[in-house]
Amino acid sequence: MKKLIYSFAVVAFFLTACKNSSTTTATESTTPTEQPAAAVADANVTEVSISGDDQMKFDTDEITVKAGQQVRLTLVHTGKLPKEGMGHNWILLKDGVDLDEFAGEAMKAKDTDYVPASREGDIIAHTKVIGGGESTTIDFAAPAPGTYQFLCSFPGHSGMMRGHFIVE
Ligand SMILES: [Cu+2]
């Protein structure tokens, strides 16, 4: 019981300490600087990240952004396998494109990172193929509100590596 009371006292101390320090920071940052302008410019950019692993899986099957935003998407490969064997990319398809049909074409397009030239009209945005330990970032404008599909087009991956990209 004594120990419990002691822990409460420690927690209470930290809470008070935090409160004090945040009050101090708030007061310090009231000085006007050039920063607000930069913050306004960045407000239009939504940063999202998605990762793929050596188990042929994305860490999420749903990404949501707001219409009118610029999207900065980072694809991270958290695995160790090289891109020749376990490469991942991220491709966002236009509304109405059949994902399985697209993936069937894409797996033949090794020379162009599994992005088939004949299907470029079906794509809103895509990354390059990366291997374990690598990451890549792309910027694109969020399309009109709706639900879109994304996939990894590396051969055999789209069955597992796919999801929905929602624009609100
Ligand atoms: Cu993949």
- Unreliable stretches (pLDDT < 50, length at least 5) are 1-35
Q: Helix and strand succession? A: HHEEEHEHEEEE
In the CATH hierarchy, the third-tier topology of the largest domain is known as: Immunoglobulin-like
**What's the helical proportion of residues?**
25-40%
Structure description:
With 168 residues, the protein is α/β, with parallel strands linked by helices. The protein folds into 2 domains: 2-31; 44-167, Cupredoxins -  blue copper proteins (Immunoglobulin-like). 28% of the residues lie in helices and 27% in strands. It has helices at 2-28, 35-42, 83-86, 99-106; strands at residues 45-52, 62-65, 70-77, 91-93, 123-126, 135-141, 146-151, 162-167. The strands form 2 sheets. Strands 2-8-7-4-5 form a 5-stranded mixed β-sheet, with no helix packed on it. A 3-stranded mixed β-sheet has the order 1-3-6, with no helix packed on it. The longest helix is centred in the N-terminal third of the chain and has 27 residues, at 2-28. The protein binds copper (II) ion. Copper (II) ion is lined by residues 52, 88, 152, 154, 157, 161.
Q: What would the keywords be for this entry?
A:
168 residues, alpha/beta, Immunoglobulin-like, 2 domains, 5-stranded mixed sheet, 4 helices, 8 strands, 28% helix, 27% strand, binds copper (II) ion
Topology:
Blueprint: H1 2-28, H2 35-42, E1 45-52, E2 62-65, E3 70-77, H3 83-86, E4 91-93, H4 99-106, E5 123-126, E6 135-141, E7 146-151, E8 162-167
Parallel strand pairs: 1-3, 2-8
Antiparallel strand pairs: 3-6, 4-5, 4-7, 7-8
